[in-house]
Amino acid sequence: MPYWRLSAFYLIFFSSLGTMLPYWGLYLESLGFKPAQIGELMALVMATKIISPNVWGWIADHTGKPMAIVRLGSLAAAVAFSAVLFGHSFLWLAVVMTVFSFFWNASLPQFEATTFSHLGNQAHRYSSIRLWGSIGFILAVTVLGSIFEAVGIGALPAILLTLMIGIWLMSLLVPERESPVISDHLPLREVLRRPEVIALLVVCFLMQASHGPYYTFYSIYLEGHGYSRTLIGWLWALGVIAEVLVFMFMHRLVPRFGLRNIFLASLLCAALRWALIGLYVDNLPIMIFAQTLHAASFGIYHAVSIQLIHQYFTGRNQGRGQALYSSLSFGAGGAAGSLYSGYMWSSAGPLATYFLAAIIGAVAFLVAWRSVRIES
Question: Which residue among 159, 190, 206, 373 has the highest number of C-beta atoms inside a 10 angstrom radius?
Answer without folding.
Answer: 206
